[in-house]
Structure formats: C-alpha cells, structure tokens
Batch of 4 targets.
Target 1
Amino acid sequence: MADVCRMRRRSSVCRGLASLAAALTTAASAAGAQAASASVGDLAPAPAVHDLDGKSVELGTWIGRKPVFLEFWATWCTSCAALMPVVREAHARYGNEVEFVGVNVTVGETPDRVREYLATHQPPFRTLYDDEGVSQRAYDVPATSYVVIIDRQGRIVYTGVGGTQRFDDALRRVTAG
C-alpha cells in the first residue's frame, strides 16, 4: 500500500488509508500477543459475513460445532504477512480438526484485489469479505492480524494481535479429546 500511496501522494483516500494502516499497526504492536477485545471465556459471536461473491455466510456454520481459528486480516497488513508462516504451520498441523477462517476487513480492499492476493499467496483459510463490518463489530476487532480461537462449544479460548503470536497451545487444547 505504501508504494501505491507514494505514487498518488495527493490522494486523500490514500492519505486516509495510510493513516488507518499506521494506527492499526501501532495498536497491534502496543497490544502484544494476548490482547483481548472479545474476551477469553465468552461465547463467540456468530454473525453472517459475506464471501467474495457477496453471498452471506453464517459463522455459526462452524462456531459451536467444531474448533475455529478466526483471523481478521488485510492484504496490506504487514503483521498479517509476518504471522502467515505460523498460520500455515498451524493449518498443516490442525487443519483437519479446526476450521480456519480469514475475515478480510475490507479497508482499502476490493473483492478483485483480495482475489488477486489469494491467487498469489494462497493463505490456508477460507476467506470472507466483511464489507459491512458485521464481524469486526461483533468481535470488537482492535487491529488487523487479530486472531480468535474458539473451542467446539463456541467459547473463545484465545485472542491475540500482531505478527509474533504463538497459538499452538490453544489449538492443542481445542483439539484434545
């Protein structure tokens, strides 16, 4: 995003996006790996969110039925990029037992841009496109790279933000027994 903004310095949209990206990155860095917006122990919200084709997808399809790994991300998010190897490793280890869902926060995004990113980077999660901010409000998302892990009973067992999270213990707990 920074490269695009350098090319379009006069664009108020670019300046606004750059400010928002900086604020989200600062919040993520300050919050550390165990930030809590949706509280551990709470029942996880299960709102409907759109997919990239605009179709409604109920998070309740998985929440309360099987463990869920939920990441709020964006294509321009540097913390999300830093976290991706850990997400890939977790998916390789727990992907048969845990539903991995990536909710694109849509700030500065279009469905086509997200599709391009998915084709190039192939993240290991089902992608949703929260163009109405429904899930972001439901989880009170503090920043991109926000991860929520939910057990099969629908309770939140982990929340974290930033590119250096380690959630293997939480995934091990939600898949045990």
Target 2
Amino acid sequence: MSASAALSALKRSHQNIREMRVTGYFGLSKQEGHWWFLDTGGERFFSLGMNHIDSATLRYPDNIEIWKSKYGSSQKRWLEESVAPDLRNWGFNTIGWTQEVIIRSSTIHRHSQDFNYEEYQWANLPYCHMLPFTEAHQWELETRLPDVFSHDFETWCDCVAREHCAAMADDPKLIGYFYVDCPTWVHARRPDLKGPWFDPELLESKSGRQKLYELASRYYRVTRDPIRRYDSNHLILGDRYEAMRLLPDEILRAAVPYVDVLSFQFFSEPDEIRSRFETWHMLTGKPILLADSCVPGRHDESSSAASMYPAMLKVLRELPCCIGWHYCGGYLKNRVRRSGFRDEHERLINPQFIEAVRRANRQTIDYVREC
C-alpha cells in the first residue's frame, strides 16, 4: 500500500475513534469536534506544563548554601517543598520536560539528565517522559546518528524501553512518552559538525520522498514496538518536531500509525501556530501538543509578556486540535538559558508575569471543566 493510501485508510478509521484510554491512565477523547486529554478519572484535561526543571542551578559556588541549608542537599525535599507547590500555585498541572540546557557553545550543546521515576514520584504531578532512543536533537552535535534499519538499533530501542517503560508502565501520573527534541530529519544547525539524517536535496524527486517515508516509517515502528512490549497503558507523544524548520509531510504521515499525538516545538505568534496546527491536523487527523514554546519578551521583565501569555493560551485552548501547552520556562533561571520564573537565589523574577500566568492557567482549567 502506498503512503497516501495508507494515510487515507488510517484517517478514515481515525474519524470513528472518539475515545482512546486505558482505565486509570491518561488517554485521548474527541468530543464535539474538540480533542482533549482524558485524566485518570476520565475527565477532560488540557495539559499546562512547565519545561526545564533543574536543581543544579542552586549549586553554583555562591548560592549552594541555599541548597544545603534550606533543602539539606536533598532533591526530594526540593521537589516536594519548592517545585511542586510553585507549579500548582502558578496553575500548571503537568511536568512537561525536565531537561535544562547546561552548556551552549559552538562545539558543545548539552542538556541535563531527565528526571528518573523516583523524582517524578517526589514531585507528585502528571508528567511526560523522554525516551533516549536517539541523539538526533537539533542542538546535539557530537553523537552519531543510528542506522534505523539495523538489528543493533532494534536492540538498543528494546534496552531503552526495558529501562524506562517497564519501570513506569503502572504509574497513573505518567501521561506519555516523548522521543527526540527537535529531530534533524532534513535540517541541521551545524552541518559542518553534524548533518541531517536524510539529504534534503533528495526531496526534489518522488523516489526521494518515498525513501524518506520508508526511513521514518521504520524509525517510528521500531521505537513504538518495544514501548508496547513493556507498557500498554500510556500514550506515545513521539518526536517534538521543530516547527520553524523544514518538515516534510512524509515524516508526519509515517508517524501516524505509531504515535497517539503529534508534538511540536513552535516559537511564534499565536495566529501562525493556530494556522500550522490546523494544517497538520487536517493532514494526519492527530491531536497536537504544543510541547515547547513561550511568549515573545519573556527575557524582558518590563515587556508585554504578561498580556501575551493569556492571549496565546486562549487561542490554544479554543483550538479544536490542541490538547496542551508546555511552557519553555524554565523553573529556575540558570546562567546559560537566562530565563526562568525564579532566579538562582529563588527570587521571583517577574511577579506581574507570573500572576498573569496563574490567572490564565486557572481560567483555562475552569474553561475545560465547563466546556
């Protein structure tokens, strides 16, 4: 069956599916034309997530006394006493993605480690977890890209799923699994150091686009299969595509049979996000998660960000295909990202903006409940 025929069949069957969930775990539902997450009790859930949560920001030489005296050098206490209460107070209901950028230079760009199972339990909030199947992130410059057609890649994916999914399979707080943050399918930020998986010049021919479809189909099948081998309860949120770079339809079509949600990093204006999300939803029939984004001006404490956050959230929650927004915080402002809700001494950076976030998030929770 051709790629287009397969997609048409999937979309026809998908139109008849209005609810996808395992009792007691997060799921999906389409109600009166609007997609929603379903929480563990079967209620509509719009995911309001905080991204980038890293306690190492409290361990610079000149502020480590906060870590020692306030939290007893305990990650558990920090998550229970600081992070979780703050996120709930600010109206966030999800831990979106915990990794934080820790070095960003011309040759090295790395993020901190993701949370492990115990850390998520200490935070005690719904969460999304990233599976390290590949290091194909657009910011990663050092690791070789795998041969997804090899038996070695299958073996590696099974190891990843066995380590992560088998441990998390019965956790009702887990929403689902991400794969790669901004995969470099056909683009590269530093082609002199690390090029894309697939030569973008081949996209000019029909046969080249078919090869890309076959490559992506293999990747999404080989990553999906071991997840389902060890965890049949949780959603597959897939790659977090970079919406501002080249993203051929063949990649999204290839993902459709193997993921539950399409996820995007998209730093743009609300109207452009809405338009592109509608296009991708029409192409695939899948609900869409804005997995990493912020509002313009977040770095400027005197900016109009306090008015822009509610406006953008209103657009997203009313968009029928959109099921959540995970905000590119981070929780603490470190010396690399240089943006956050609290600084490295835990002081609120922009109280006016945070109050606007709190109000908008809570209004959104009310909106979802009353829809």
Target 3
Amino acid sequence: MRRVIAGFAVVALLAACTALQPPQAEQASTYVLEAMPAAGAPRPRRDLVLEVPPPRARPGFDTPQMAYTQRANALEHFARHRWVDTPARMLAPLIAQALEQSGGFRAVVQAPSLAAANLRLETELVRLQQEFGARPSRVRLTLRAQLID
C-alpha cells in the first residue's frame, strides 16, 4: 500500500512541476518594406551618375522596433511586431531602385561605390510610425532629402 501511495505521490509531484513551466512566448511577427514600381511618363535621361548612400535615421527610428503613437510626442514600440532590419537600411535599395527605374540618370549607384558620381542624394528618415490618434489609424513616413552637386 505504501508503494502505491508513493507512486501516486511521485506522479502528482511530476504533474505539478509541469504546471510550473513558463508559458510559451508568442512569436514575434517581422515585416519588410517593399515598393511597387511607379508607372509614369518617361523622364529625359541626363548623362549623370547619382550616388545614393544609406539614409540616416533620427533617434527613435534607427531600430528594428516598429514605432507607434497614441498621443502627441509619445513614441512607443510594438511588443511583438518588428522590422527585419532598421527602416533606413531597408529604404536605401528602394530609393536607388526607384531612381534607376525613373530613367533620369545614366546610372544610380549605392554608396559606398568605386564609381565616380556627379550627384549625391543624402536622405534622412525623420519619422516612420503608425498613429492611433484618429480612426482609422494611419502611417506617417517623413523623409528629408538633399541633392548635393
């Protein structure tokens, strides 16, 4: 009888220990920035090479965390949603691709490059956040660009 009771006690203790295991963490969702080519009128081609360095990002936006706001000037980040890389790093090839597809330049190169460029397009990611202050929510993207000769 003691062995049966001891066996039940061991089984009960093992069952109780499995209930103390931490809950399974929810998987984080990851997202990428993509762009569809814009259809437009052909642009006159200039015999210029444009260099596009990676965009800089303002503080709070140089992270793979996805930002949102619920009230003015209060930047927060989603707990389970992330970018696969920083938004600035994902924007660099999209900017270069869009400028190359415009047909307005002899060549568009991403910095660093060994090619000699006539122009340089400096960009800064000022803001990329989802705003919940109004319904429906909206995404605000602010990009500052400076063309340097």
Target 4
Amino acid sequence: MSALAFAGKRVLVTGASSGIGYHLALEFARCGAQVLLVARRQERLQKLAQRIQELGSQGIVCPGDLTCSEVREQVFEQVRKQWGALDVLVNNAGTGALGP
C-alpha cells in the first residue's frame, strides 16, 4: 500500500478482530488512515484500536454482529457522526455454509 494514497482517508474495516481484516486495519493505520473497526469481539477490537493509536492514527471501535440490521444501522450512524462519509470500505465480515 502506498502511504500517500491513504493518508488522512476514512476507512471502515469489517471483520477487523482477526485475520485479513485485522492486518488490513493495521496497514491502513500505518499509511495514516483513520480506521473504524467493526467485528463481534469487542475486546480484540479495543486492543487493535490501542495498537492503531500507538501508530499515531485513529482507531474507532464499533462492536457488533453485522447480520443484525440494528448493528448495521449503528455502524453507519457512527460513520455519519464521526466522519460524515467514508473513503474506503473493506467489507471483510462474512459467514460461511458447508454442504451441497
């Protein structure tokens, strides 16, 4: 990622408590982006937000299960309240199903 491309950008990362979402959130922060962190595990999000702040960026925690419509509304209300709009959405949260 080019640091110049994301410096000052407003980024929402879903599934940010682990895996790809976690590492992308850190990388965006290293590039100077402000990051809104969304996932079900609040404690992990808090730790990630602390790491992001140590990098000199802003990490905002918005815990919840995105399969719930009320949570999705809370996330977008947080975006509106905090920033007014987004520059980047990493839609990384998801569910899976196995079977034929």
